[in-house]
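Help needed: design a sequence for this.
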């Protein structure tokens, strides 16, 4: 939080200098300027002076800032070529200085006409300063006025921050905080919570107006999804009902990452840079509230994960303790259960740090929680590393298979729409009776996800639909399956590898076309006689007869083993 506060203080300096400056027309009303006159560039009298500087030589232009008012004497204009004088005015205007005060007398009777003409063209104010007035008598009151204005604004910002903190300390919500800020700015305020995928609006406002603002927010962030690039305070204008409306967006930073935005809309009046200060001050308070909500969720997730790990443990003591605590999560030890497993992975160059990944993970779990809460009476979500497990409890009257497939599809659509930074696969385990047997459904779900690596395509795989894979993926059969593969198909695989042939591919097409050599020829774009030759070579190398049912079934089974075990 300290980093964010320091960042705001730096911005405050820039905004205060810009907003609390004095217009040229206003300094002309000061006593120290009562004998001064504007002799050129009167069209720029609304230019703002942010500070005053004295020019001893033109090299000072290398160090000036926007808004500075330069004081000098006519000595430079008397001793310098006209072209250099003109360049001084051009460069001062290019650097966006507010203007120039010159003691013309006694060095010159008047400024060169070319200088006056150029200053008028550029609307660059030039004021003739009374020779008898010391520069300090000009600088001191100008700086004093700027300081007074800045002090007033700082006090207002502190008051707003104090009021906001009081709202929070009294137990107020984010809605109360933005309601308080809305009164200060006299304009609508909205908080966009990217983490919990929520738009928070002051309920006291006009519902029709807020509906339009909500549409704008959805449009603004729809393409950004989780990774929002708007990581700095920004100001722009948007069009609502054919009116151009001011909009200020301030990022809400938690743990050095963007978790939301505080947005103000100038529906009733234009927004100023002062409003930016109020909003940036308030954003730190909103960040505290965000952090509180996130911390609560992280603690809940931690306890759920520990409970689930105990529940699936082969340590009988741990499992017994978990079943005893099951009522806390509204789970019946004698009910039937299914497990849905999500395996997450990053998209290319999408998540740069562990903190970002954790942010994404907590968000995904929250989104899953919202879906399950609406679709299922009793469930529990638990994450471990890059995996999220969802445990569902079913009533006897429920069609669990249909229901869990529906929920999986809803999760898929929600993640695809709102979390662009991850890829995922989902596996659905078979229904089992009793909490003590949940590990069986989990094992099925994990094997269903594993099947997506080399056996089946798709983002959602139900273990029940995997056919012979359900047998071949059993760990206790792995040694026998590998042995069978080596005795049947491996010689053909080795032959292809050494001679760069495609006999294994040809055998696969043979099974896909049910042994129809003509269709094989078409799919392989190969002459019929070539296909016939390949079939004969396959039989010679494998020592299997494809016309024999048992040999044919053995080779086809070995092909499946190769895919399933990724041999």
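Sure. Designed sequence:
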């Amino acid at each position: 939080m300290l980093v964010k506060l320091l960042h705001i203080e730096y911005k405050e300096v820039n905004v205060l200098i810009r907003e609390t400056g004095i217009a040229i027309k206003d300094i002309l009303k000061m006593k120290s300027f009562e004998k001064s006159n504007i002799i050129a560039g009167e069209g720029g009298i609304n230019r703002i002076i942010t500070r005053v500087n004295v020019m001893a030589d033109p090299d000072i232009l290398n160090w000036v800032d926007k808004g500075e008012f330069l004081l000098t004497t006519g000595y430079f204009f008397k001793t310098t070529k006209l072209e250099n004088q003109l360049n001084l005015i051009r460069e001062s205007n290019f650097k966006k200085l507010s203007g120039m005060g010159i003691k013309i007398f006694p060095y010159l009777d008047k400024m060169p006409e070319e200088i006056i003409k150029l200053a008028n063209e550029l609307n660059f104010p030039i004021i003739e300063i009374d020779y008898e007035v010391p520069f300090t008598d000009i600088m001191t009151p100008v700086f004093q006025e700027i300081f007074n204005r800045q002090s007033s604004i700082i006090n207002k910002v502190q008051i707003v921050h104090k009021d906001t903190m009081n709202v929070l300390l009294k137990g107020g919500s984010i809605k109360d905080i933005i309601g308080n800020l809305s009164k200060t700015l006299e304009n609508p305020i909205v908080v966009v919570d990217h983490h919990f995928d929520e738009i928070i609006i002051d309920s006291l406002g006009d519902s029709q107006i807020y509906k339009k603002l909500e549409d704008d927010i959805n449009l603004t962030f729809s393409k950004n999804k989780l990774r929002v690039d708007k990581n700095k305070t920004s100001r722009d204008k948007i069009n609502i009902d054919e009116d151009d409306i001011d909009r200020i967006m301030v990022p809400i930073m938690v743990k050095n990452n963007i978790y939301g935005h505080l947005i103000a809309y100038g529906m009733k009046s234009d927004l100023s840079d002062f409003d930016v200060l109020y909003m940036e001050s308030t954003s730190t308070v909103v960040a505290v509230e965000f952090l509180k909500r996130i911390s609560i969720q992280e603690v809940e997730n931690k306890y759920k994960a520990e409970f689930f790990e105990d529940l699936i443990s082969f340590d009988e003591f741990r499992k017994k303790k978990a079943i005893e605590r099951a009522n806390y999560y509204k789970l019946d030890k004698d009910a039937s259960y299914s497990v849905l497993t999500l395996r997450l992975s990053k998209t290319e160059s999408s998540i740069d740090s562990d903190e970002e990944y954790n942010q994404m993970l907590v968000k995904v779990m929250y989104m899953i929680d919202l879906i399950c809460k609406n679709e299922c009476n009793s469930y529990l979500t638990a994450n471990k590393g890059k995996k999220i497990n969802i445990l569902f409890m079913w009533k006897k009257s429920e069609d669990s298979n249909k229901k869990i497939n529906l929920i999986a599809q809803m999760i898929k659509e929600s993640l695809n729409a709102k979390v662009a930074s991850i890829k995922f696969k989902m596996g659905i385990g078979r229904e089992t009776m009793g909490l003590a047997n949940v590990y069986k459904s989990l094992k099925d779900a994990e094997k269903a996800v594993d099947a997506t690596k080399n056996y089946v395509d798709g983002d959602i795989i139900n273990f029940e639909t995997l056919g012979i894979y359900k047998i071949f993926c059993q760990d206790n059969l792995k040694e026998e399956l590998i042995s069978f593969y080596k005795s049947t198909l491996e010689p053909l695989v080795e032959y292809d590898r050494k001679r760069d042939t495609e006999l294994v591919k040809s055998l696969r097409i043979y099974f896909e076309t049910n042994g129809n050599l003509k269709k094989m020829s078409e799919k392989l774009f190969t002459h019929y006689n070539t296909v016939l030759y390949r079939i004969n070579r396959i039989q010679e190398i494998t020592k299997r007869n494809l016309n024999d049912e048992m040999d044919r079934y053995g080779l086809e089974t070995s092909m499946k083993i190769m895919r399933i075990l990724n041999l």
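Residues 1 and 254 are 7 Å apart (CA to CA).
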